[in-house]
Amino acid sequence: MPKPPVIEDKQIENLLKATAAYSRVPLRDTALLLTLYGTAMSVTELATISVGDYLDAKGNVRVTSAVRVDVAHNGEERPLFWSNKRVVAALDAYLAWRVERKHGVTVKKGAYRGLDPESALFLTEDGGAYALTKRKLPSGVWSYSCNTLGAYISRLHANAGIEGGSAQSARRTFAVKQHRQGRDLVHIAAILGHKSVSTTKRLVEGDPVRLSEIVARAV
């Protein structure tokens, strides 16, 4: 099975510009894409992570948070960091937009910036949660997926002319970029939620980095 493509920085910038210009919900979609590329969460995680995973009761960003057990794609809690300023700025703008439209708000004024902490961080255009599909694996374990959001993310990439772009390619892009910068595979695996470093190693293998770039950074 071919690996998803690595999306380079210039392509990501074009993706964000195209989304901001043509999306029906530009603030949400740019925040969604930046969170996707900035945290390497899976589609299901993006669909189920809550406002309370991003904000504390005082409305401050939880710089150090977690992908909870009931959210994590592998059923194991892992660290989640809201430390990227660009991601935070986009999310803050989107959440302010949500409050204006009363999407997922709470009656407790002031708490969580007026948002329901249990509401999903990313909502549909109508202000509802994304629907999850549930199926039982041969092992007996229940698996959840969010095909609607996954297809939408792929469509955003296609609209920007990025062939094969998807949530899976964003996760691989995150891993490859960190590996290029010399990050340890153990730490990359921890962020991605891989139980085995070998899974992360397979993901970064075949990095399409151009040989000219390697030489250009030699000295």
From TrEMBL:
Transmembrane segments: none annotated. Residues 2-216 form the Tyr recombinase domain. This is Putative site-specific tyrosine recombinase. PANTHER family: PHAGE INTEGRASE-RELATED (PTHR30349), TYROSINE RECOMBINASE XERC (PTHR30349:SF81). The keyword Nucleus does not apply. Keywords: DNA recombination. The keyword Coiled coil does not apply. GO terms for biological process: DNA integration; DNA recombination. GO terms for molecular function: DNA binding. Pfam families: Phage_integrase (PF00589). It comes from viral metagenome.
